[in-house]
């Protein structure tokens, strides 16, 4: 996904897009932290379902969310299966595959659901934030939250140049295919892919070194400060919306503690 596509999504027309970036950043990052702190899987599932409902208001194609969730879902499913058969002491059932027996544990089922929903909720909430908020607003909001400037600068550089690295890798792969690289054996293809990855890393290191030297020549330092990005106060309507959703998250946290 190119940076222009993300910027276009972040500037679409929906109620969530019109929220102040500072409110959205704090609210969604807080929700991500809570999703990893909840101890009951059904509360995390409620949080995930809520994020899915919010995505439906963005007026974006569902395919964009499914693409984002594809790889995390695969990882979460593998973790779920590994916990299902290995974690716990109370057997719910036994699955037989020939002479092999695989017991399903109650504790593994609960922990597997918890981790699965944690992963899916965190990724969905992060996608919502990136789809509805320009990256510059997210980074500047984190700067207001006193996140160290070096981390903000590194994140901005990574966001700006990771797409160039991706495009370089695609160009090299297309050149490889134009030279009948797909007709080789799988061992030779794996070797060529390794070469492409190595060249991409070398080019990335060389580009990052040149960019850093250019920044230093223009007076950059870790203590450098620029003009304030946010010049207006947060609208009262955004305050109210933020407080409403923050109260819902607080209610879920209280339920998680009391149950």
Written description of the protein model:
With 259 residues, the chain is mainly alpha-helical. The chain has two domains: 1-145 and 231-259, no CATH class; 148-226. Helices cover 72% and strands 5% of the residues. A two-stranded antiparallel sheet has the order 1-2. A hairpin with a 2-residue loop joins β1 and β2. It is flat.
- pLDDT < 50 stretches: none
Sketch the topology as an H/E string, one letter per element.
HHHHEEHHHHH
Shape: flat
Instruction: Determine the structural class based on helices, strands and strand pairing.
Output: mainly alpha
The value of Rg in angstroms is 23 Å
Number of helices: 9
Terminus-to-terminus distance: 42 Å
Jot down its keywords.
two-stranded antiparallel sheet, mainly alpha, 259 residues, single chain
Question: How are the elements arranged and paired?
Answer:
Layout: H1 3-10, H2 21-37, H3 41-55, H4 62-86, E1 91-97, E2 100-105, H5 106-132, H6 135-144, H7 149-178, H8 186-217, H9 236-258
Antiparallel strand pairs: 1-2
Helix pairs in contact: 2-5, 2-6, 2-9, 3-5, 4-5, 6-7, 7-8
Short précis:
This protein has nine helices and two strands, in the order ααααββααααα. The protein has helices spanning 3-10, 21-37, 41-55, 62-86, 106-132, 135-144, 149-178, 186-217, 236-258; strands spanning 91-97, 100-105. The chain has a two-stranded antiparallel ribbon with strand order 1-2.
């Amino acid at each position: 996904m190119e940076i222009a596509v993300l910027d276009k999504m972040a500037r679409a027309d929906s109620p969530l897009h019109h929220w102040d970036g500072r409110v959205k950043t704090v609210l969604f990052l807080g929700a991500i932290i809570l999703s990893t702190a909840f101890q009951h899987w059904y509360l995390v599932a409620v949080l995930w379902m809520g994020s899915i409902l919010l995505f439906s208001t963005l007026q974006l194609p569902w395919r964009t969310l499914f693409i984002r969730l594809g790889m995390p879902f695969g990882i979460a499913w593998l973790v779920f299966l590994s916990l299902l058969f290995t974690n716990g002491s109370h057997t719910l059932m036994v699955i037989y595959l020939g002479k092999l027996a695989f017991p399903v544990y109650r504790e593994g089922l609960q922990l597997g659901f918890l981790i699965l929903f944690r992963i899916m909720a965190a990724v969905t909430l992060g996608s919502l934030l990136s789809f509805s908020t320009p990256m510059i607003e997210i980074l500047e909001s984190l700067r207001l939250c006193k996140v160290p400037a070096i981390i903000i600068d590194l994140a901005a550089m990574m966001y700006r140049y990771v797409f160039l690295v991706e495009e370089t890798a695609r160009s090299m792969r297309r050149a490889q295919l134009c030279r009948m690289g797909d007709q080789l054996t799988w061992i030779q293809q794996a070797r060529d892919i390794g070469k492409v990855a190595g060249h991409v890393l070398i080019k990335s290191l060389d580009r990052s070194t040149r960019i850093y030297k250019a920044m230093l020549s223009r007076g950059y330092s870790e203590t450098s400060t620029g003009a304030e990005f946010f010049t207006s106060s947060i609208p009262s309507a955004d305050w109210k919306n933020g407080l409403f959703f923050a109260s819902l998250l607080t209610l879920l946290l209280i339920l998680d503690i009391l149950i």
